[in-house]
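Reviewers of the previous submission asked for a worked example of the structure-prediction workflow described in the proposal, so we include one complete record here. The input consisted solely of the amino acid sequence. No template or homolog information was supplied to the procedure at any stage.
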Amino acid sequence: MSDKKFKRTLVTSALPYANGPVHIGHLAGVYVPADIYVRYLRLKGEPVLFVGGSDEHGVPVTIRARKEGITTQEVVDRYHKLIKESFEGFGISFDVYSRTTSEIHHKLASDFFRKLYDEGKFIEQTTEQFYDEQTGEFLTDRNIRGECPHCHAKDAYGDQCEKCGRTLSPDELINPYNAVNGNPLTKRATSHWYLPLDQYQGWLEKWILEDHKEWRPNVYGQCKSWLDGGLRPRAVTRDLNWGIPVPVEGAEGKVLYVWFDAPIGYISNTKELCDSQPEKYGSWETWWKDESTRLIHFIGKDNIVFHCIVFPSMLKAEGSYILPDNVPSNEFLNLEGDKISTSRNWAVWLNEYLEDFPGKQDVLRYVLTANAPETKDNDFTWADFQARNNNELVAIYGNFVNRALVLTKKYFGGAVPKQGELTEYDKTTIQEFCDIKQNLEQLLEQFRFRDAQREAMNLARTGNKYLADTEPWKLAKTDMERTGTILNVALQIAANLSIAFEPFLPFSSEKLRKMLNMEKAEWEQLGSISLLSEGHELNEPSLLFEKIEDAAIQAQLDRLARIKKENEEAAWKAPEVKALTNIEEFDKADIRVGTVLECQKVKKSDKLLQFRIDDGMGGRTILSGIAQSYPDPSVLVGKQVLFIANFPPRKMMGTESEGMILSAVNSDGKLVVTTVSSAVRNGVQVG
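From that input alone, the workflow returned the following structure tokens.
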């Protein structure tokens, strides 16, 4: 954070594409961290505006529309609604969540472009781009497929090969074609306007590399890498029939490039909110043009360049806007050891989670924050999800709160007991949470949300240990005064937890405050030992969190297993037919049927299995390199298999192999022994 003093904070979060639902990767990478920070600032009473919205232009939405055979507007309407409802379901507390198809956005983005155009801030260039002669349209990178020049996958995209992960350009593809209809492509000349980023190179180097060394290492490092490589002009328009028309005469059929129009959505959405409620939010220009406003962008690492180099250059070129003070970007979240992929349906979709785990929004918020990919890619697993819920939220936080409230109801009728004389252990315990406000503030201001949530949970651990050590349920038999003091301290800790966890777990914090009969959370009171006065009436206690049973987790794992199998089957393609042969060549191979009598792994070999075959001719031993496909080779005993009988004997690992077992490669890449379904005589020839 810079040393400059700000009067207000404007927080934006990356605009999700309205071409599908949002998943846990989005939530962990962008929206939960942003919401934590905004809720924290609100608790402190600081002026803050949280702006979000759907990105409804660009190629992904048009691809979705074509696949479903509906209009692009129908696609964005559906997913904008679904995304907005999903965010609301998880308590992502936007002040405004709008969309880039709004009239306000279209006008503001058009005016922004026109101002830069009129002031000569763009350059015009003519280049050759891929064109589909049959449909009469230029193709975007994502609409182009072809053979990857690196791994030779046949269906790499024009911007990336999903098989090897390499970043590509369409010009690198071998035999490029239209991804939608398979048509071959040609090249045609087309003119576009470009933002000359190279002209802002020197300014960006000073602004980022010298003035913002406090940015996260992943953000700073990626920016430095781009700057070291030298910036080049970037197109701000493209040939497309969906988007904001370029407001220049003679630019028919061209729209603003989505990367140019989308970040302007932050501004237009702010304007939409402020214009509708000026008495509450003031002028939108105060939030975007007043130097005393602090601008924070929350994004994923795939958006670093756009928010740290491209968008600031746009704002600098326009001249009247403030620049971001920080851009806390997270890395990626994987799912069960594999990269989250919307195209492969390998994700946990937020709308489905809300249906499968009703009332457990905070559980996912907690797990995603505890495992946040703040410095490196992290992995979400359902086993970890269950363990953190059952072992931390239930067994530590929930257990402590429940015991404190239930015991207070049992022994004091649900009224806060008097805090009597404190023991040294009481004082030591109290001291442990007196500093929590300062500790949390330090971590939250540094955007270290994972550590901050851990600090809040440590307070719950303190409370849990305090009750376990003091055992008020035993003392109640002999010393009610001491019991009252212990429960008073425990209730003060519970009240502090309702505040400390408010930015992270808003639903359970609200539930806890209702049980404690607290009207609201006040950040300034955090760390106090007198949040609840003597005689204060508590409400009926209930469980703050519930255990998640194995069956619920298994259902999610089964779903992923089905998806993985479907993806493997969909991705599998029959290998190309080998070079032509003839019947005479085929007849040279003596293929026969035999029954497996014994099958075991070969010692000191990870690959070989040793078969003993009843071949109808006295038996033979055959070695086959399929051990990794059969962890338990005994399953093959008794099977009738096909083998080549006239291969010359070959000695391997000290054993002579007399033939070759026939097997096939399955869709999952594993070798499967070819078996005979109907019993036939051993030694029979196949042909």
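The longest helix spans residues 382-412. We consider this example representative of the routine output the project will generate in years two and three.
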